[in-house]
Amino acid sequence: MNDDGWPRGQDCDDDDTDEDTPEIINIKRRVYQALRSIDSKGDFACFRGLNGILDPKLHINRLDRVVKLPLSPDDTNAIIDVCHRSPFGKGEETLVDTSVRKCWELNTTEFDIKAPGWANYMKKIVADVGKGLGVADKVSLIRADPYKLLLYEKDAFFLSHQDSPKADGMFATLVVCLPTEHEGGEIVLNHQGKSMQFKTSTTSIAGFSYAAWYSDVFHEIKPITRGHRLVLTYNLILEGTDNVPSAPSSESRALRNALKFWEPRAEDEGPYLLLYKLSHMYTDSSLSFQSMKGSDRPRMAALQAACEELGFNLYLGNVEREVRGSCDDYTNSQGYYEIQDTIDDSTIMKQVIDSQGNLVCGQVPVRNSEYIQMNVLRGVPTDEDYSGYTGNEGTSVCHFYRNTAIVIVPKRLDVYFRFRGINGSNQEKLADWLNRLLPLIKDSQDTESREEFNHLVELVLEHNEAYEKYHEIARPGWRISDTFRYKFCDTVLSIIAQGLHTIGDNESFEKTIKLHTAFVSPEVYPCIAESLVSQEYATVKKALNYIFLKARDYPTKQVLVATDLVSACIAIPDERRPSEWADLLSWREQKLAGLLPRLRNGSRDELDSIVRILTLYPTIEKLQDTITLQRQVATCGITVACLAKLGTSYIKGYLSVEGFRVFYQRTFEDLVKDLDLDQGLEAKPVANIGPFRTDAQYKSSALESADLISIYEQCLDFDIPLSVLHAGIIRAIKQSQSLKLAFPNILVPFLRGIVSGLPGRTSDERRSAESSFVLRALLEYVLRYVQSRSTAVASWSRAPASSCRCKDCTQLNAFLESHTQEVLELKISSGRRFHIHQAISKDQTILEETRLSGSPYTLVLTKLGNPATMWKSRAVDAVKNINSIGSPTALEEFLGSASYKSLMALDIVIKDRPIDDYFEHSNSDVGVRKRSATSELNPEGASSMAHDTEVIDLT
Q1: By CB atoms within 10 Å of each CB, which of 340, 460, 559, 930 scores lowest?
Q2: What is the pLDDT of residues 43-79, one digit of tens each?
Q3: Within 10 Å of residue 455's Cβ, how many Cβ atoms?
Q4: Alpha carbons within 13 A on the beta-carbon side of 324
Q5: In this protein, which residues make up the domain named Fe2OG dioxygenase (predicted)?
Q6: Which residues pair with 339 in a beta bridge?
Q7: CA distances from 108 to 112, 148, 149 (A)
Q8: CA-to-CA distance for 200 and 179, rounded, in angstroms?
Q9: Residues in Cβ contact with 693 at an 8 Å cutoff, skipping those fewer than 6 apart
Q10: Can you list the domains of the chain with their CATH numbers?
């Protein structure tokens, strides 16, 4: 340390000084010296020997007696017999390793202090510790919680470590050494370059001693050379959240003067922020202005007072520097692996909080040169992660340097600091920030919010302009810096445009519109319309064409531009809207006419755009052409959704065209014949590790229950017989190969709507037909998904998996349909193996393995699961799914008691009862026989079954 008190070191990195002008160095020195003059009366650790203290009456629960102190050899051995080895924490793990920590321990549930006066003695010790650690004014809020009883025998030790927080509010550790003679076992503590050593052996023959230290202090227990060391450990907890007391004004005067000197120079000469490394490190959970320790407390208090007075913002955060690079396979003299060639080096402040504990921002990049102190985040790393040789790669290591720092930033420059945490991957945070400001900047008197908004606009627009200029001149092979890897998205720019229109900055508003990459949000269209009122009509059309063409790669976006932007222009009051603007309606019609044929991807995202166009310019021919195109390029699910949206638009009065009802009924009758519950399924990987497996999931192109419900309601509105829809759905159930997914995802919500009556839509006359339809749908589902028990439990047969007629698929299907064959081995090439994999990847009951021996390798397929167990699993699924349609009472009332009971008893697959029986005798008692499996599968319905049922065990 130099005479001026500003620390320097031999391992100073260029980053510490190269960016600092003499003016910045002067400001840093002033602030550093001012803070250094503010100190607490305590230290990071304290120790004291005590004589004549009360015997604690140490009771060992498993010995069922109090042991006398000092310990006798017999009592020592007896305690060891009931102890367990002490663990230590490593990251998220708790480990036992006697090469790191060798010690015996008992938890608080395994011993007691019986002396009635011990609590009062502990209060005196805590008060003494408060003075020693510099928190005397907080003593009334400090609680000492018993933690462990530790016994160190000869050669016992604990390597250097930090104490992990054991409870909220824990800030320090207290150790009381009980009378038991020993030698060695010194406590060696190191913190911020300062070292202390406490010897408990000096009072160990008949006396007591205590030691206390802050939780983040590195400390070790040296080996015991003779005897035994017996200690009680306590966690020191600071209760309450009262404010940190202010430092004396005489000590903070220099700090105020330093900040006054800095503030007017911050924007032009810098620095625009400073970081001050605290003496202690704080965990993320304990990070707060109120949890400061030692000298950090008065310094934080002084900074809070001075910053509030002089117009600075103060934040707190944990900083981590991560340096990754190659290394030798041996450690240096300081015990860590030294990096030879740096591969990556980054420093971030992980989370930034204010004085109220609110999260202000996170993942903020910081530079070492921004610290007031020098050589921070340098030297010996806080932690390291070493990777040995792996394959052809050499050894590598990642060094971590961590500390807790205060951020000091002038209020007028606060936006620039918080903006640092915004990047290409978290732009939604910037959007939220801007949206919070939009209502505030409407008030012209709110200069603070407007200034904050303008700062953000400046930063965003400058970044995007620089991004575009860079990529205009960039050449292949250039290394792109992180700054130019992203630009701020159109969503952010549209929010900015709204704000700029609000404050009347027309020049920046126009610039922002031009900086959009593809799509200006509809929220901006009224602003654009207002800005064009005074322009020539040619300029207006040019502006609309410009915005329309920006979205040329996104037809659905262009539909929004053509419809909503023109609507915003037409919405301008007549007295202000130029008469030529009536021609914009023709412009809209022309653009939309060209867009309709482009909407042919068959995706659900296009449907709203299609319906928008057809609603504005409806003809039966266009409607028919649209449906024809959808049936060619899209799944039945998308086509049904399209018809449902058209029907909704017509019913609400938005779409008006003669002959729509006839068009709807004909289209509906054609579509319902082709309902397919399996379209839209895709195989997705189950996990990134282990054998490659996939799971079937529905894409957005699949048939959706909401669309079926809409079609159902529209049939009622248009007086279309529901029997057509019923027949189509029953046909789809019979043809489906994926009822395990289709029934709960598509059919259950639809059937639930019918059973609940789609309130106000189902008449009593229609209820009987609906009841028959729902019952038949459920029976078909059970029959095809659960399958007949008599054949399923005795067979290994599966449904064929491939419609391909190649030799391999023929062999595969024969294997799957076999009632007896459990394993198939195919010695085939990799391409043929992949062909088979594609066929069976959706079937989770087939295990697929490759035997890596011979040439070619052998594909081994194994049928999984006992047939009886698998049948029962399907039965459980079926009953669960049926129960989710409605309550037992509602279902029984809707289906009829006899039919409901037979359905829930699974008669159709247990007794092989024909489906037609349910409808030939729908009004009679079918003599349902309940089985024990039914109680397990359907416990809710058990009470409603007849008391004289025959029980058949299916387990």
Answers
A1: 340
A2: 888 998 887 678 899 999 999 999 999 999 999 999 9
A3: 17
A4: 6
A5: 143-238
A6: 327
A7: 7, 6, 7
A8: 10
A9: 685, 686, 687, 841, 844, 848
A10: 14-23+247-328+339-420 (no CATH), 45-238 (2.60.120), 599-736+744-758 (no CATH), 765-955 (no CATH)
